Amino acid sequence: MTTDNKPTLTYADAGVSIDAGNAFVGRIKQAVASTTRPEVIGGLGGFGALFSANFKHMQEPVLVASTDGVGTKLLLLQQHGRPHVAGIDAVAMCVNDMAAQAAEPLFFLDYLATGKLDDETMAAVVEGIAEACCVCECALIGGETAEMPGMYAPGHYDIGGFSVGVVDRPSIVDGVTISDGDVMLGIASNGPHSNGFSLIRKLIEVGGADIANDLLSDGTPAIDAVLAPTRLYVPAVKAMLKAGVAVHGYSHITGGGMFDNIERILPAGLAATVDIASWPVPPVFEYLLGFADVAKFERYRTFNMGIGFVAILSESEAVKAESVLRDAGETVYRIGRIHKQDGEIVTLIG
After folding, report:
1. What confidence tens digit (pLDDT) does each residue in 320-342 have?
2. Which of 158, 99, 129 is nearest to 33 (CA)?
């Protein structure tokens, strides 16, 4: 058997360019550097990211870890060319979960995967990640960009986020102190965030919607509202900690909506009643839900419906908390109360 006619192949011939990958790392160095904290050792390029933890100000530091993605919202972000939002969302979905336990995010790592590396798109994703990390004072200390020909359709990519934070054990907010009579404060969302997009895409399909050109009832372009980046609640929680507000429970309203995310933090024997008339439903949800008949339970279990984060605390702390949150730039509503359970764990009225 002769081998004289064997083709000459390189990794680039198979669809992976090591040179392009190295060039991409060089391109994002400035964005990554903008997120650094004093504890970060070195920069990009090592086999592992180094972080010199210093928790001398804490009695008993507890590490908190979170990982998440952006879900099928990515399909719309790719279709409409908004990779920057994908980066923000990847960070927000991780750090907001940690904030729900009053943890401070320390560092973040990303995983980007695509069929063919597009510098412009991937750099925009990383710049979105860096922007969100800066808002939360969280260092982007590493990540992975995987170029995998044949795994993804042209123009498609996937993203995963990974973050580690810390909280002093006496300051952990886990719901165990929630009591009968506590007040629920709802903090406004930026829109659908990164949840319920399989239903959103179905609603758009069924309604024949043109989100690139449609306007909401308030005149906002539909595309800006549907694809708005997930709000970052870390600064709000930091403000509450700094002000010494005694919070009994936090809930990040993600998949499962009001029902699952509030229920998961309530102690046994307690229930929550949420008054859905206590805050205005954002026009983006009216727009999307106008395309099909979606039952109330389904709406509030799939979408955040305008409330992205919930704080549960005593009546005596509520006024102080409202002031602190508004000073931190949040829009806040009193959305319900905690009481002894005599039926459903989470009930909607209004």
Report:
1. 999 999 999 999 999 999 999 99
2. 129
